[in-house]
Design a protein that fits this description.
This protein is an alpha+beta fold and 260 residues long. Helix content is 41%, strand content 30%.
Length: 260
């Protein structure tokens, strides 16, 4: 009886770690298939204690035929020595071309001490890039927006589009910059924002150019083509207004920019 009790205790203590390991292995396996629909099916089906702890932030157009995505999920693990519940946070970054995954990165959130402060980072569990399709993406982006795709602006999900945000009702720095550019009628720099890799920055660029349009600026056919191209993009952006920060459909923001 004592041996049975020990076995049961050992099983229930190790069960969270087994589930966690299975989820990690399952994520790596389905990502290796490079099939986006399979990954979506997987994210909807794996066991998870709290449905709210898995979510997409970024899921949107990047360049014609290519999309960008960031998916998070949390899982409970074995309890720490002090009895507190340990939560493991995972992040998946994707670039897709149709249903094919062009690039993926799968990481686990950890912390490391730098100058007496604990700094979060993601430890790589798996990654992949299809070099030929990624080169096609770079060419597509350049031809579509007239600017270079910047890898540092991919998968950025902490830039909020909006105004009067947070407890203090402060405008985001990007909003402050765009307003200054519009006030100075700096059309050239506003179009540079429209060529950004980050979608929120592109929307800020649209806002600045719309301000110029309302002030009487006339755009060339090529400039209007670029404006319309960005307006045609679909997917999610991070938005803020007052104390509300949320991921929302970009059409809830861009519908008001009428350039015709």
């Amino acid at each position: 009886m004592r041996k049975l009790s020990i076995l049961l205790i050992s099983f229930f203590c190790s069960y969270p770690q087994l589930v966690l390991s299975q989820i990690q292995e399952g994520a790596i396996r389905v990502l290796a298939s490079k099939n986006f629909l399979s990954f979506q099916t997987f994210t909807d089906s794996f066991p998870i204690q709290n449905p709210g702890s898995r979510h997409w932030t970024i899921l949107r157009d990047l360049s014609p035929g290519f999309r960008e995505g960031v998916f998070y999920f949390n899982e409970f693990g074995p309890k720490a020595n002090d009895g507190s519940q340990r939560v493991f946070v995972f992040r998946v970054q994707l670039i897709t071309h149709g249903n094919e995954i062009v690039h993926y990165y799968f990481g686990e959130k950890r912390s490391k001490k730098i100058k007496k402060e604990w700094v979060p980072y993601y430890d790589t569990l798996a990654h992949f890039r299809n070099d030929s399709l990624y080169t096609l993406l770079l060419s597509s982006f350049q031809n579509t927006y007239g600017g270079e795709l910047k890898e540092s602006e991919l998968f950025v999900d902490n830039i909020a589009y909006g105004h009067s945000c947070g407890n203090g009702g402060m405008d985001p720095q990007e909003k402050v910059t765009i307003d200054r550019l519009a006030e100075a009628n700096n059309k050239e720099e506003l179009f540079n924002w429209l060529r950004s890799t980050n979608f929120e920055k592109q929307i800020y660029g649209l806002e600045g150019l719309y301000t110029l349009k309302e002030k009487g600026t006339v755009f060339t056919n090529e400039e209007l083509r670029l404006i319309k191209t960005v307006l045609m993009k679909r997917g999610t952006i991070y938005s803020c207004r007052g104390c509300v920060f949320r991921w929302t459909d970009v059409l809830r923001v861009t519908y008001r920019f009428k350039f015709e």
